[in-house]
Design a protein that fits this description.
about 170 residues, Rossmann fold, three-stranded parallel β-sheet, globular, transferase
Length: about 170
């Protein structure tokens, strides 16, 4: 399925569970006529979906990320370049690191008032999936993905370090 639009929606949470108790009514959440206009070109996830599984799909060309650490790790693990659109807290540091130091993301630029225009979102998404700079970032992220997968393998540095950490608790 070639998707021009992908989105996830969330209904109110059941206070006794951390997941929605029922699928949301898409017609009440989405703009009028959206489902009819987008037809076969879209996929709307009505409940929780694994972000890593979505990012790992062959049709994903880029990821607009809020720069949370788990999202960054999942994008790198999937080999997906990012557009960094921070929200708050440590995300400013993460964005700076991703864009300026690691070269794994393009920045989402805000106006002086702190807003991001629809034109900026479109520009950055197009740039990450279809430009020379986006391709360079993609190649770099793919190389880092291979390093991350090696680190998480049975004999990899992350697994060895975690095993040593657990062993330190025993003594």
């Amino acid at each position: 399925m070639n998707l021009d639009a992908f989105g996830a929606v969330r209904s109110e949470l059941n206070p006794n569970l951390s997941l929605p108790s029922h699928a949301p009514d898409l017609n009440s959440l989405l703009p009028e006529g959206f489902l009819e206009r987008t037809g076969e070109r879209r996929l709307v996830v009505k409940q929780w979906a694994s972000q890593l599984a979505v990012l790992s799909h062959d049709s994903v060309g880029g990821f607009v990320s809020h720069c949370g650490w788990n999202s960054i790790l999942e994008a790198i693990s999937a080999g997906i370049p990012m557009v960094a659109w921070l929200l708050y807290a440590e995300q400013k540091f993460n964005k700076t690191m991703l864009v300026e130091e690691l070269k794994m993301a393009l920045p989402m630029n805000e106006s002086q008032a702190g807003y991001v225009s629809a034109e900026e979102v479109e520009k950055r998404v197009r740039e990450i999936v279809d430009s020379d700079e986006g391709n360079k970032i993609r190649e770099w992220v793919l190389a880092k993905r291979d390093e991350a997968l090696a680190a998480m393998s049975d004999d990899g540095s992350s697994r060895v370090a975690l095993d040593k950490f657990f062993e330190s608790w025993k003594t």
